[in-house]
Amino acid sequence: MLNIIVTGATGLLGGILVPHLHAKGHKVTAHGLTKKADVNADLTDREAVFTMMDSVRPDCVINLVNLSNVDRCEEDPDLAYRMNALPAENLAAAILDHHGARLVHISTDHLYDNPAPNPEERIVIRNTYALSKHASELAALRVPGAIVLRVNFFGKSRTTGRLSFSDSLIENFRSGKPMTLFTDVLFSPLSMTTLSEMIRIVAESGTAGVFNLGSRNGMSKRDFALSLARRLNLQNGSARDGLSTDVNLKARRPVGMLMDSSRFERAFNVTLPALEDEIMNSKV
Ligand SMILES: NC(=O)c1ccc[n+]([C@@H]2O[C@H](COP(=O)([O-])OP(=O)(O)OC[C@H]3O[C@@H](n4cnc5c(N)ncnc54)[C@H](OP(=O)(O)O)[C@@H]3O)[C@@H](O)[C@H]2O)c1
Questions:
Q1: How far apart are CA 242 and CA 50, in angstroms?
Q2: Mean per-residue pLDDT over the chain, rounded
Q3: What's this model's pTM, rounded to 2 decimal places?
Q4: In a mutational test of the pocket of ligand 1, which residue from 7, 64, 149, 258 has the highest number of ligand atoms less than 8 Å from its CB?
Q5: Has residue 60 got a pLDDT over 90?
């Protein structure tokens, strides 16, 4: 049994990951900022991070803290740095100072923008969110033995007030709200359930470095949405095909976010599922 603290546990992924780690027999402390949690602390405050780490004394820190609003990050780069990079810097400082815990840092596929599945080295920074997430990775990697997992995910949210990408699609299909399905945006997410199990395996291992962690193959966001509609027998008449460049957004979005996760499969001796199977078999 590991003594694990999940920072940012009150967010979307934490709502699935924390119960999963509990069910696998680990002692889990759930951290949040504003929402009710086992421990609340502002991770931009270094002293607060040291105090939290002194009281929990974890074997393993799984860091989910972030500001995922890409346009907000573009408008306010300082906020993007404070919410994405600074928490990782402060956790790394506390671990390096005296805690010696293993650091599992969760990052994003938003660091890629190439049409073919991207290996870990092929980073393209398109916006401030991506820049601040990459900065967070570099901060985490200062800790010996740290592991960075670049992810994307979907599934039914258990977190009040926080919808996943698939939740939003389902809501729009059900209400008949018009929406544009992007044919040009390619991604390879996992369900939050599969991702949580992979993070559990990672936490229990000693493997270090940077890894993509996504489904075996991917698809466009349009094909993902239509597969989801088929799975749930939802009418898709309210949706139309389009390009991400058709909409006017503050931050430029990457489109080629497919991840080549073969390094992860080899290192952890697992076979990751195909995205179509994830959509058909997971809780949505
Ligand atoms: N969501 C996606 O679709 C997606 C896609 C790709 C990658 N990812 C990555 O997956 C990870 C988890 O994302 P998520 O969507 O689950 O996160 P989320 O729902 O946005 O949750 C963010 C968490 O960070 C906490 N937080 C924010 N500012 C903080 C601060 N200053 N100090 C301490 N805690 C703070 C929040 O606490 P309170 O809620 O208590 O205020 C919350 O627990 C992130 O690394 C993200 O980059 C997410």
A1: 48
A2: 96
A3: 0.97
A4: 64
A5: yes
